[in-house]
Amino acid sequence: MTAAPVISARGLDLTFETNDGPVHALKDINLDIERGEFVSFIGPSGCGKTTFLRCIAALETPTGGTLSVNGMSAEEARKERSYGYVFQAAGLYPWRTIAGNVRLPLEIMGFSKAEQVERVEKVLSLVDLDGFGKKFPWQLSGGMQQRASIARALAFDADILLMDEPFGALDEIVRDKLNEELLKLWERTQKTIGFVTHSIPEAVYLSTKIVVMSPRPGQIYEVIDSPLPRFARPLDIRDSEEFLQVAHRVREGLRAGHAYDE
Ligand SMILES: Nc1ncnc2c1ncn2[C@@H]1O[C@H](COP(=O)(O)OP(=O)(O)OP(=O)(O)O)[C@@H](O)[C@H]1O
Q1: CATH number, domain 1-82+159-236
Q2: Beta-sheet pairing, 7-18 with 38-42
Q3: 111 phi and psi, to 5 degrees?
């Protein structure tokens, strides 16, 4: 028997009603994400990547189709705290220490003081920020702040991690390092990850599955299963023939999905 997908979308549609008329943001999205997969969403600006992630998180309500998250509706899954969400900007409260920021969801959820301390220590260590708990966000580099926001999303140990361009604002060297660390973290925690990116190398380096989207309205153009080894991915795998072939396929998909715009 195969396990049910963690996330399953069937015929998912979303139209925003705006002052300028309806915006068809998602059209007929069909996708299964299995437990433990690392799935990237890539596509041009406005193709609905963020909107789809927000649907999974029940931050948007689809106008058609079905969506299940951990075997429940997205709304139920949100109430069950099935996912942690990492935004493009770290979004840390400047008046709280790093530990205080990471602890915040645990306070809201009513974890005991002792468990809060234990969990904060554990997740700060997972993102390589041991010893930084007492610092304030402004005392940390952009990359470290983003690691802290990942720690916050991991603090309550949800099965699913949703990440919306978490490293988009960082320079390439820092991004490379965080990509490597994220892979290790994924290996250690066995989470299911949904990851939005604009970067082809980032998508190919990280993912088991790459969802190429096309705009107006946002649709899935192609789903590419990566042939790369699941975890053993040193950064120089990006020079390998296999990697370049997948990157080429993604690029072709993006071009083809965009063709009617040209
Ligand atoms: N709350 C909203 N109200 C109206 N339209 C919206 C809303 N949110 C998103 N949209 C529109 O839906 C479409 C998809 O937006 P979305 O942010 O999901 O795209 P994206 O692929 O994540 O883009 P980017 O890569 O620029 O972040 C866009 O046309 C956007 O303008």
Answers
A1: 3.40.50.300
A2: unpaired
A3: -65, 150
Q: In the block, which residue shows the tokens 């948007």?
A: 60
Helix segments in the chain, DSSP class H: 49-56, 74-79, 98-109, 113-126, 142-154, 172-189, 200-206, 241-257
108-136 pLDDT, tens digit each: 989 999 999 999 999 999 888 999 999 99
Is 27 near ligand 1, meaning CB less than 6 Å away?
no
Considering only CA atoms, which of 152, 159, 154 is closest in space to residue 7?
Answer: 159
Tens digits of per-residue pLDDT, 209-237?
Answer: 999 999 888 999 999 999 999 888 888 99
Measured from the CA of 48, which atom of ligand 1 is nearest? 18
- Contact call for residues 42 and 218 (beta carbons, < 8 A): no
Where are the domains positioned within the chain?
1-82+159-236, 93-157
Is ipTM strictly over 0.85?
A: yes
Give CA–CA dist 131/129, Å, rounded: 6
The CB of 218 under 6 Å from ligand 1? The reply is: yes
